[in-house]
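3.2 Worked example (two chains)
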Amino acid sequence: MAQPVQKNTLYVGGLAEEVDEKILHAAFVPFGEIKDVKTPLDQATQKHRSFGFVTFLEREDAAAAMDNMDGAELFGRVLTVNYAFPERIKGGEQGWAAQPSMFRFLSCHCFSTRLHCSSRPYLVA
């Protein structure tokens, strides 16, 4: 089942390391009022993962931004701008738990000795 797109939130890919949320906001604000800007961080490096999300108040503003910024250059990198898909909630009907063919649960006694054992099952691909 295909997930609906969020017509006022844009995915912005191809971000250079120097681009932060302020810069991303400044690049997209000419197209309309922005509700939110996020650049998810990599947990290991604490740097953004070369993509972000820009949420506009109006759908028309998001459409204009996508039309104008997809393929545009920012800090020497070409941007990919598309409508964002809703976040998938892990363990919910829409998330990976609803796809049993891709995952299976195994109890800890099935793992090799390199993994730690606990009383709850692990999820493995």
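3.2.1 Second chain
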Amino acid sequence: MIKSFYPPLRTLMGPGPSDVHPRVLAAMAKPTIGHLDPAFIGMMDEVKQLLQYALRTENPLTMPVSAPGSAGMEACFVNLVEPGDKVIVCQNGVFGGRMKENVERFGGTALMVEDAWGTAVSIEKVRALMEQHDDIKALAFVHAETSTGVCSDARALCRLAQDYGCLTIVDAVTSLGGVELEVDQWGIDALYSGTQKCLSAPPGISPVTFSERALDKVRQRTSRTPSWFLDKTLVMGYWGGGQKRAYHHTAPVNTLYGLHEALVMLQEEGIENAWQRHALHHRALRDGLEAMGLQMAVAADIRLPQLNSVTIPEGVDDAQLRSQLLESYGLEIGAGLGALAGKVWRIGLMGSSCTRRHVMLCLDALENTLLEQGADIHSGRASAAAAAAYTNPEQ
């Protein structure tokens, strides 16, 4: 007979999900009510306001899609790309490739700007391609590339798109809550994110926001949106303002309780303080890793604080080390993807997993496990270097 499932206690420091705070777990255990209950509708309005705060936007169409970040991605592309549309897609890791898939599946033409994994999107390459075409409908790029730990210059890319009169579609799955993100100030037209990274809510919800320019494109479509569930003109009947809502789908009630609490916690901390916290603990982790003799895989000026790519030392068995960390310390770190598989570890410092306790545990566990494998590292230095970073946080 199959019995109840009891998951092991883990410390999650991979590329996501991150540790979910006890307050969020407690919120999810509250009584389920109907998805059209007046009390739930009031909470929905608060979720929208809290997302607007986190995204730094006043866009009325800001809402959580009842599905993971991949569905948020599809929601942006399926509403904004029509057959024949030319879309510049920037790829410098795994997730730019998924953008290309979306453009092509909805009948658009993806004009690719490709940069090496571990580098940022090239502004000059994008400009050169825009110069060659006068009918670009949108520029799509990943702000924080989860597969590499690289942050591209979203502000500059959005300014470039505005100069050439096209929309922007931005993947902010890993950036929301972890690094500066200014939807209105930068002029982002459509953005999707996830809840399981720096928000530290459970997976399964994707915040999205659409500017008025993006909504004009949706309204002016000459073909019907080829997805019923993700059609923004339909779902806004449920997520629109006011108490009167049209049934669209049964929302994941308890999961949205969790997102609400995670966003309340972010508001309590302050979004700019959250950005600073991620930067502080990143510096401590970096200093500890480098004192140990390990190397960061991404240049400092484009490095994500919340997703740290670390070069695997020569002779170390990647899979065995990660398995040993999980078994001996209950600690999860991520493997490399695609071109970086077997070459890097991805260590997450996201949301509730971004604390001094997490940094010190990771450094100690990693050092001990590397020494057990016979790796050529400097022992006994990492913790002191990290502690020094906390003592001198501005350095």
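3.3 Remarks
Residues 238 and 245 are 5 Å apart (CA to CA).
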